[in-house]
Amino acid sequence: MTTEKETPVATITRIRESKSSAVRTNRKSLFLLVCALLFLAVGVVRGQEPINTTCPVTTDEELGDEAVTVTYQGQIIGLCCKRCRAKFLAAPTKYLANIPQFKKPAAEDEDHHGGGGKASEDHDHSDHGEEGGFIQSIGKFHPIIVHFPIALMIIAALLEALALVKGKKAYGQALRPMLIIGALSSVVAVLLGFAVATGSDQAGELVTVFERHRIAGTTTAVLAVLALFLAEKWRATSNAKLIRFYRAALFSSAVATGIAGHLGGTLIYGLNYFS
User: Fold this and answer.
1) What is the pLDDT of residues 91-150, one digit of tens each?
2) What distance in Å separates the CA atoms of residue 88 and residue 70, rounded to the nearest whole number?
3) What share of the chain is helix, strand, coil (3-state, %, to 5)?
4) Are 145 and 188 in contact (CB under 8 A)?
5) For residue 162, which of 230, 247, 234 has the smallest C-alpha distance?
6) Which pLDDT score is estimated for 127?
7) C-alpha span between 75 and 199 (Å, rounded)
8) Radius of gyration (Cα) for the chain, nearest Å?
9) Residues contacting 230, CB < 8 A, separation 6+
10) How far is CA 132 from the centre of its chain?
């Protein structure tokens, strides 16, 4: 009985098909992971409901479909329109008394601090702020993780620009791991950003900066994940149309990353840091 030997061509074909199957499996796993992270991020964003039901500026106005929100002292506050939002941002403490969650009964306040505005001797303030402490503790990793997408997405965009100008595929191959890590870390950074925001106490103009920083950061993550998806799809299908959308998403993500980073720095160092 003789055994047929596999020809070299058949061997090469079998190895290629095996590698192709493994690549498809890895891409599918990566796609499912990205979808799961995005689903979690959307869930966090959608979970940020305002604590109030009526506008604190126009107190007799219920929050409707056109309602907008701001974040103040870690709380999501709803306002009936953009005009009321601007008034609230200009002087938030003026309208806090119109929000039940920020009200303190006079008797409770006197009892709490001994009636004279001073804390009683046997009153311990050490337990203040423990509510939500676990989430805020996780959020403290936001400044660490956020450096990954800032560096990687911008470098990936620069390499793609070099690949586009010089026509060298080596640049595109080098940026692939950067794009993967940058996109995934951007989603993690956004989730940690929402976690640390639960203890935010921004006031005045910094409230607007904080809102813009959150929007820019979320936009960065969405564009980064979109760029990763389009890049992997393009590599799998060699569809020339996909590379245009991929580059648009990648370059837009790099710009959004720079904006989010600048706004984040403004929250830390202040509005007049460069003046």
Assistant:
1) 888 888 888 877 655 444 444 444 444 443 443 434 444 444 677 778 888 888 999 999
2) 9
3) 70, 5, 25
4) yes
5) 247
6) 42
7) 8
8) 26
9) 242, 243, 245, 246, 249
10) 19
